[in-house]
Design brief:
The chain has 374 residues and is α+β, with helices and mostly antiparallel strands. It is built from eleven helices and 18 strands. 30% of the residues lie in helices and 28% in strands. Strands 1, 2, 3, 4, 5, 6, 7, 8 and 9 form a nine-stranded mixed beta sheet that branches. It has a seven-stranded antiparallel beta sheet with strand order 14-13-12-11-10-16-15. Strands 17-18 form a two-stranded antiparallel sheet. Strand 4, helix 5 and strand 5 form a beta-alpha-beta unit. The longest helix is centred in the middle third of the chain and has 18 residues. The protein is globular.
Amino acid sequence: MLSKVTLDDIRPIAIGAGILGTGGGGNPYLGGLHLASVIREKGPQTLIDPFALADDALVCVAGSIGAPTVSIEKLPEGTEMLRALRLLEEHIRRRFDAVAIAEIGGANSMQPLIAGLQAGIPTVDSDSMGRAFPEIQMSSYLFGSDAQVAPYAMVDAADKAAVVPAAASDLWGERIARNIAVSMGARAGLVACMMTGAQVKQSGVHYTMSLAHHLGERVIEAQERKSDVPQVVADVLDGRVIFRGKISDVNRRTTKGFARGWVRIDRFSNDDRLDIQFQNEMLIARINGAVVTTTPDLICIVTEEEGEPVTTEVLRYGTRVAVIAAPAPAQLKSEVALEVVGPRAFGYDVEFSPLPGGVIGLRPDTSDQRGYCS
Protein backbone atom coordinates (compact mmCIF):
# COMPACT_ATOMS: atom_id res chain seq x y z
CA MET A 1 0.00 0.00 0.00
CA LEU A 2 1.01 3.63 -0.37
CA SER A 3 2.65 5.31 2.61
CA LYS A 4 3.26 8.73 1.03
CA VAL A 5 1.42 10.64 -1.68
CA THR A 6 3.80 12.64 -3.86
CA LEU A 7 3.44 14.71 -6.99
CA ASP A 8 4.15 11.60 -9.08
CA ASP A 9 1.21 9.79 -7.46
CA ILE A 10 -1.41 12.38 -8.37
CA ARG A 11 -2.07 11.30 -11.96
CA PRO A 12 -2.62 7.59 -11.16
CA ILE A 13 -4.81 8.49 -8.17
CA ALA A 14 -6.85 10.90 -10.31
CA ILE A 15 -7.42 8.25 -12.97
CA GLY A 16 -8.19 5.46 -10.51
CA ALA A 17 -10.43 7.55 -8.26
CA GLY A 18 -12.16 9.02 -11.30
CA ILE A 19 -13.09 5.51 -12.40
CA LEU A 20 -14.06 4.30 -8.91
CA GLY A 21 -16.23 7.39 -8.46
CA THR A 22 -18.86 5.98 -10.88
CA GLY A 23 -19.27 9.43 -12.43
CA GLY A 24 -19.28 11.48 -9.21
CA GLY A 25 -17.01 12.81 -6.52
CA GLY A 26 -15.98 15.94 -8.39
CA ASN A 27 -13.69 16.48 -11.35
CA PRO A 28 -10.45 14.49 -10.75
CA TYR A 29 -8.34 16.74 -13.01
CA LEU A 30 -9.23 19.86 -11.05
CA GLY A 31 -8.80 17.99 -7.77
CA GLY A 32 -5.34 16.91 -8.90
CA LEU A 33 -4.32 20.48 -9.68
CA HIS A 34 -5.39 21.56 -6.19
CA LEU A 35 -3.54 18.68 -4.50
CA ALA A 36 -0.40 19.36 -6.55
CA SER A 37 -0.30 22.99 -5.42
CA VAL A 38 -0.51 21.95 -1.75
CA ILE A 39 2.14 19.21 -2.11
CA ARG A 40 4.50 21.70 -3.78
CA GLU A 41 4.04 23.98 -0.79
CA LYS A 42 4.10 21.44 2.05
CA GLY A 43 5.63 18.24 0.66
CA PRO A 44 4.19 14.71 0.40
CA GLN A 45 1.23 13.64 2.52
CA THR A 46 1.48 10.70 4.91
CA LEU A 47 -1.00 7.89 4.24
CA ILE A 48 -1.49 5.42 7.07
CA ASP A 49 -2.89 1.90 7.31
CA PRO A 50 -6.28 2.04 9.08
CA PHE A 51 -5.15 -0.74 11.42
CA ALA A 52 -2.20 1.41 12.54
CA LEU A 53 -4.66 3.84 14.17
CA ALA A 54 -4.91 3.77 17.94
CA ASP A 55 -8.35 2.61 19.02
CA ASP A 56 -8.93 5.91 20.83
CA ALA A 57 -7.63 8.14 18.01
CA LEU A 58 -10.09 10.83 16.93
CA VAL A 59 -10.77 10.79 13.19
CA CYS A 60 -13.02 12.88 10.93
CA VAL A 61 -13.93 12.68 7.25
CA ALA A 62 -13.49 15.56 4.82
CA GLY A 63 -14.85 16.27 1.37
CA SER A 64 -16.84 18.57 -0.85
CA ILE A 65 -20.64 18.53 -0.90
CA GLY A 66 -22.70 19.78 -3.84
CA ALA A 67 -23.26 19.18 -7.54
CA PRO A 68 -20.34 18.03 -9.76
CA THR A 69 -21.68 20.25 -12.56
CA VAL A 70 -21.08 23.27 -10.32
CA SER A 71 -17.59 22.17 -9.26
CA ILE A 72 -16.12 22.69 -12.74
CA GLU A 73 -17.42 26.28 -12.84
CA LYS A 74 -17.09 27.37 -9.21
CA LEU A 75 -13.49 26.67 -8.24
CA PRO A 76 -12.53 26.32 -4.57
CA GLU A 77 -10.72 29.00 -2.63
CA GLY A 78 -8.33 26.27 -1.47
CA THR A 79 -8.64 26.14 2.32
CA GLU A 80 -12.28 25.09 2.71
CA MET A 81 -11.36 21.68 4.17
CA LEU A 82 -8.91 23.15 6.66
CA ARG A 83 -11.30 25.89 7.77
CA ALA A 84 -14.14 23.40 8.25
CA LEU A 85 -11.85 21.05 10.18
CA ARG A 86 -10.65 23.82 12.50
CA LEU A 87 -14.22 25.02 13.00
CA LEU A 88 -15.33 21.56 14.09
CA GLU A 89 -12.29 21.19 16.36
CA GLU A 90 -13.23 24.49 17.99
CA HIS A 91 -16.77 23.22 18.52
CA ILE A 92 -15.70 19.92 20.15
CA ARG A 93 -12.65 21.48 21.88
CA ARG A 94 -10.30 18.75 20.73
CA ARG A 95 -7.87 18.23 17.86
CA PHE A 96 -8.26 15.46 15.31
CA ASP A 97 -5.51 12.85 15.01
CA ALA A 98 -6.19 11.87 11.39
CA VAL A 99 -8.59 12.46 8.53
CA ALA A 100 -10.34 9.63 6.64
CA ILE A 101 -11.87 9.64 3.16
CA ALA A 102 -15.61 10.08 2.78
CA GLU A 103 -15.63 8.65 -0.76
CA ILE A 104 -12.80 7.49 -2.98
CA GLY A 105 -14.49 9.01 -6.04
CA GLY A 106 -12.97 11.78 -8.14
CA ALA A 107 -11.73 14.95 -6.48
CA ASN A 108 -13.21 13.87 -3.15
CA SER A 109 -10.47 11.24 -2.95
CA MET A 110 -7.98 14.11 -2.79
CA GLN A 111 -9.73 16.46 -0.37
CA PRO A 112 -8.68 14.42 2.71
CA LEU A 113 -5.08 14.49 1.46
CA ILE A 114 -5.29 18.27 1.12
CA ALA A 115 -7.00 18.65 4.49
CA GLY A 116 -4.42 16.44 6.19
CA LEU A 117 -1.50 18.30 4.66
CA GLN A 118 -2.89 21.68 5.61
CA ALA A 119 -3.75 20.54 9.14
CA GLY A 120 -0.52 18.61 9.70
CA ILE A 121 -2.17 15.22 10.32
CA PRO A 122 -2.07 11.96 8.33
CA THR A 123 -4.75 10.66 5.97
CA VAL A 124 -6.14 7.17 6.53
CA ASP A 125 -6.12 4.73 3.60
CA SER A 126 -9.81 3.99 4.07
CA ASP A 127 -13.07 5.42 2.81
CA SER A 128 -16.72 4.66 3.52
CA MET A 129 -18.01 3.66 0.08
CA GLY A 130 -15.35 2.14 -2.18
CA ARG A 131 -16.95 4.37 -4.82
CA ALA A 132 -18.97 7.63 -4.58
CA PHE A 133 -22.54 8.28 -3.50
CA PRO A 134 -24.55 11.51 -3.64
CA GLU A 135 -25.71 11.72 -0.01
CA ILE A 136 -23.68 11.81 3.19
CA GLN A 137 -25.74 9.20 5.10
CA MET A 138 -24.69 6.64 2.43
CA SER A 139 -21.58 5.78 4.39
CA SER A 140 -20.31 2.53 5.88
CA TYR A 141 -18.83 4.60 8.72
CA LEU A 142 -22.44 5.36 9.69
CA PHE A 143 -24.38 2.17 8.96
CA GLY A 144 -21.40 -0.03 9.90
CA SER A 145 -20.81 1.45 13.37
CA ASP A 146 -22.52 3.67 15.92
CA ALA A 147 -20.84 6.83 14.57
CA GLN A 148 -23.12 9.70 13.56
CA VAL A 149 -22.87 12.32 10.83
CA ALA A 150 -23.31 15.25 13.27
CA PRO A 151 -21.77 17.36 14.58
CA TYR A 152 -20.31 18.68 11.36
CA ALA A 153 -18.93 21.91 9.94
CA MET A 154 -19.36 23.48 6.50
CA VAL A 155 -17.65 26.42 4.83
CA ASP A 156 -17.74 27.95 1.36
CA ALA A 157 -15.17 29.68 -0.81
CA ALA A 158 -15.92 33.04 0.81
CA ASP A 159 -16.56 33.66 4.51
CA LYS A 160 -19.77 31.73 5.09
CA ALA A 161 -19.59 28.95 7.67
CA ALA A 162 -21.93 26.78 9.71
CA VAL A 163 -21.72 24.20 12.47
CA VAL A 164 -24.56 21.70 12.86
CA PRO A 165 -24.21 20.37 16.42
CA ALA A 166 -26.79 17.58 16.16
CA ALA A 167 -29.33 15.99 13.83
CA ALA A 168 -32.34 13.79 14.53
CA SER A 169 -30.88 11.16 12.18
CA ASP A 170 -28.14 10.83 9.59
CA LEU A 171 -30.75 11.35 6.87
CA TRP A 172 -31.80 14.63 8.48
CA GLY A 173 -28.14 15.53 8.73
CA GLU A 174 -27.93 15.11 4.94
CA ARG A 175 -31.03 17.22 4.34
CA ILE A 176 -29.74 20.05 6.53
CA ALA A 177 -26.29 19.91 4.91
CA ARG A 178 -27.78 19.87 1.40
CA ASN A 179 -29.84 22.99 2.09
CA ILE A 180 -26.80 24.75 3.51
CA ALA A 181 -24.73 23.68 0.48
CA VAL A 182 -27.36 25.05 -1.91
CA SER A 183 -27.29 28.34 0.03
CA MET A 184 -23.52 28.36 -0.42
CA GLY A 185 -23.85 28.08 -4.20
CA ALA A 186 -24.16 24.26 -4.51
CA ARG A 187 -20.56 23.72 -3.41
CA ALA A 188 -19.10 23.64 0.09
CA GLY A 189 -16.41 22.00 2.17
CA LEU A 190 -17.70 19.51 4.75
CA VAL A 191 -15.97 17.91 7.73
CA ALA A 192 -18.16 15.41 9.55
CA CYS A 193 -18.59 11.93 11.02
CA MET A 194 -16.28 11.97 14.02
CA MET A 195 -15.05 8.45 14.83
CA THR A 196 -12.56 6.63 16.95
CA GLY A 197 -9.81 4.60 15.39
CA ALA A 198 -11.70 1.48 16.47
CA GLN A 199 -14.79 2.59 14.55
CA VAL A 200 -12.74 3.24 11.41
CA LYS A 201 -11.25 -0.24 11.59
CA GLN A 202 -14.71 -1.76 12.16
CA SER A 203 -16.65 -0.02 9.40
CA GLY A 204 -14.33 1.42 6.73
CA VAL A 205 -13.76 0.20 3.20
CA HIS A 206 -10.01 -0.10 3.56
CA TYR A 207 -7.04 0.51 1.24
CA THR A 208 -9.06 2.30 -1.41
CA MET A 209 -6.50 5.06 -1.95
CA SER A 210 -3.94 2.35 -2.66
CA LEU A 211 -6.43 0.66 -4.99
CA ALA A 212 -7.10 3.92 -6.86
CA HIS A 213 -3.35 4.41 -7.29
CA HIS A 214 -2.86 0.80 -8.44
CA LEU A 215 -5.75 1.08 -10.91
CA GLY A 216 -4.38 4.36 -12.30
CA GLU A 217 -0.93 2.85 -12.76
CA ARG A 218 -2.39 -0.10 -14.66
CA VAL A 219 -4.35 2.27 -16.91
CA ILE A 220 -1.24 4.35 -17.68
CA GLU A 221 0.74 1.18 -18.39
CA ALA A 222 -2.01 -0.12 -20.72
CA GLN A 223 -2.15 3.22 -22.52
CA GLU A 224 1.59 3.09 -23.18
CA ARG A 225 1.32 -0.48 -24.48
CA LYS A 226 -1.79 0.40 -26.53
CA SER A 227 -3.68 -2.43 -24.85
CA ASP A 228 -7.44 -2.72 -24.45
CA VAL A 229 -7.56 -0.26 -21.55
CA PRO A 230 -11.24 -0.71 -20.58
CA GLN A 231 -10.64 -4.45 -20.31
CA VAL A 232 -7.63 -3.82 -18.09
CA VAL A 233 -9.82 -1.66 -15.83
CA ALA A 234 -12.42 -4.43 -15.65
CA ASP A 235 -9.75 -7.00 -14.82
CA VAL A 236 -8.27 -4.90 -12.00
CA LEU A 237 -11.72 -4.37 -10.45
CA ASP A 238 -12.84 -7.98 -10.97
CA GLY A 239 -15.63 -6.68 -13.20
CA ARG A 240 -16.56 -6.83 -16.86
CA VAL A 241 -17.03 -4.53 -19.84
CA ILE A 242 -20.78 -4.53 -20.42
CA PHE A 243 -21.01 -2.11 -23.37
CA ARG A 244 -18.97 -0.20 -25.94
CA GLY A 245 -20.46 2.55 -28.03
CA LYS A 246 -21.04 6.24 -28.66
CA ILE A 247 -22.96 8.64 -26.43
CA SER A 248 -26.07 9.52 -28.41
CA ASP A 249 -27.99 11.64 -25.90
CA VAL A 250 -27.53 13.26 -22.49
CA ASN A 251 -30.14 14.79 -20.23
CA ARG A 252 -28.54 16.55 -17.26
CA ARG A 253 -29.76 19.21 -14.89
CA THR A 254 -28.58 20.68 -11.62
CA THR A 255 -31.38 20.64 -9.07
CA LYS A 256 -31.60 20.61 -5.26
CA GLY A 257 -27.82 20.39 -4.97
CA PHE A 258 -27.40 17.38 -7.29
CA ALA A 259 -26.58 16.68 -10.92
CA ARG A 260 -29.48 14.47 -12.05
CA GLY A 261 -30.27 12.93 -15.41
CA TRP A 262 -29.55 10.11 -17.82
CA VAL A 263 -27.18 9.19 -20.61
CA ARG A 264 -27.89 7.02 -23.66
CA ILE A 265 -25.17 5.05 -25.45
CA ASP A 266 -25.57 3.27 -28.81
CA ARG A 267 -23.47 0.19 -29.50
CA PHE A 268 -20.97 0.41 -32.36
CA SER A 269 -21.82 -2.92 -33.96
CA ASN A 270 -25.64 -3.15 -33.82
CA ASP A 271 -28.81 -1.44 -32.61
CA ASP A 272 -28.33 -2.22 -28.90
CA ARG A 273 -28.80 0.73 -26.57
CA LEU A 274 -27.60 1.29 -23.01
CA ASP A 275 -29.39 3.78 -20.75
CA ILE A 276 -27.90 4.91 -17.43
CA GLN A 277 -29.64 7.07 -14.84
CA PHE A 278 -27.55 9.12 -12.45
CA GLN A 279 -27.75 11.36 -9.40
CA ASN A 280 -24.19 12.69 -9.31
CA GLU A 281 -23.20 9.00 -9.68
CA MET A 282 -24.30 6.27 -12.10
CA LEU A 283 -27.05 4.31 -10.35
CA ILE A 284 -28.81 1.92 -12.74
CA ALA A 285 -27.96 0.61 -16.21
CA ARG A 286 -30.37 -0.97 -18.70
CA ILE A 287 -29.57 -2.59 -22.05
CA ASN A 288 -32.56 -2.48 -24.38
CA GLY A 289 -34.76 -1.82 -21.35
CA ALA A 290 -33.50 -4.73 -19.24
CA VAL A 291 -31.68 -3.94 -15.99
CA VAL A 292 -28.08 -5.20 -16.06
CA THR A 293 -26.43 -3.41 -13.11
CA THR A 294 -27.64 -1.36 -10.16
CA THR A 295 -26.21 0.48 -7.20
CA PRO A 296 -24.31 -0.31 -5.02
CA ASP A 297 -22.33 -2.22 -7.68
CA LEU A 298 -20.19 0.17 -9.71
CA ILE A 299 -21.14 1.48 -13.15
CA CYS A 300 -18.07 3.18 -14.59
CA ILE A 301 -17.80 5.02 -17.91
CA VAL A 302 -14.35 5.42 -19.49
CA THR A 303 -13.17 6.61 -22.88
CA GLU A 304 -13.09 3.70 -25.29
CA GLU A 305 -9.47 4.05 -26.41
CA GLU A 306 -7.64 5.64 -23.44
CA GLY A 307 -9.67 4.28 -20.53
CA GLU A 308 -9.86 7.72 -18.91
CA PRO A 309 -12.79 8.31 -16.52
CA VAL A 310 -15.85 10.14 -17.85
CA THR A 311 -17.64 11.85 -14.98
CA THR A 312 -21.27 12.98 -15.13
CA GLU A 313 -20.42 16.65 -15.57
CA VAL A 314 -18.40 15.99 -18.75
CA LEU A 315 -20.73 13.53 -20.52
CA ARG A 316 -20.90 14.74 -24.13
CA TYR A 317 -22.69 13.67 -27.30
CA GLY A 318 -20.45 11.70 -29.63
CA THR A 319 -17.90 10.53 -27.05
CA ARG A 320 -16.79 6.96 -27.70
CA VAL A 321 -16.94 5.10 -24.40
CA ALA A 322 -16.82 1.74 -22.69
CA VAL A 323 -19.01 0.95 -19.68
CA ILE A 324 -17.66 -1.30 -16.94
CA ALA A 325 -19.66 -3.00 -14.19
CA ALA A 326 -17.70 -3.96 -11.07
CA PRO A 327 -18.72 -5.56 -7.78
CA ALA A 328 -19.15 -3.25 -4.79
CA PRO A 329 -17.29 -3.90 -1.54
CA ALA A 330 -18.89 -6.34 0.89
CA GLN A 331 -19.67 -3.51 3.33
CA LEU A 332 -22.31 -2.17 0.92
CA LYS A 333 -24.13 -5.46 0.35
CA SER A 334 -25.53 -6.22 3.79
CA GLU A 335 -29.27 -5.94 4.44
CA VAL A 336 -28.70 -2.81 6.54
CA ALA A 337 -26.47 -1.23 3.89
CA LEU A 338 -28.88 -1.93 1.03
CA GLU A 339 -31.60 0.02 2.83
CA VAL A 340 -29.34 3.06 2.46
CA VAL A 341 -27.48 2.48 -0.83
CA GLY A 342 -29.51 -0.13 -2.73
CA PRO A 343 -31.70 0.68 -5.75
CA ARG A 344 -34.84 1.21 -3.65
CA ALA A 345 -33.05 3.90 -1.63
CA PHE A 346 -33.03 5.91 -4.89
CA GLY A 347 -36.62 5.15 -5.82
CA TYR A 348 -36.05 2.25 -8.24
CA ASP A 349 -38.43 -0.68 -7.77
CA VAL A 350 -35.69 -3.18 -8.59
CA GLU A 351 -34.08 -5.98 -6.61
CA PHE A 352 -30.33 -5.75 -6.17
CA SER A 353 -28.58 -8.67 -7.85
CA PRO A 354 -24.93 -8.52 -6.79
CA LEU A 355 -22.13 -9.07 -9.25
CA PRO A 356 -19.84 -11.95 -8.23
CA GLY A 357 -16.35 -11.43 -6.86
CA GLY A 358 -14.77 -8.14 -5.94
CA VAL A 359 -11.50 -6.57 -4.82
CA ILE A 360 -12.55 -3.21 -3.38
CA GLY A 361 -11.66 -3.02 0.31
CA LEU A 362 -9.14 -5.86 0.27
CA ARG A 363 -5.57 -5.64 1.53
CA PRO A 364 -2.85 -4.83 -1.05
CA ASP A 365 -0.56 -7.75 -1.81
CA THR A 366 2.16 -7.37 -4.42
CA SER A 367 2.38 -11.14 -4.78
CA ASP A 368 -1.15 -11.22 -6.19
CA GLN A 369 -1.41 -10.61 -9.93
CA ARG A 370 -4.24 -8.12 -9.45
CA GLY A 371 -2.41 -6.49 -6.55
CA TYR A 372 -5.07 -7.29 -3.94
CA CYS A 373 -5.98 -10.24 -1.76
CA SER A 374 -8.31 -11.12 1.10
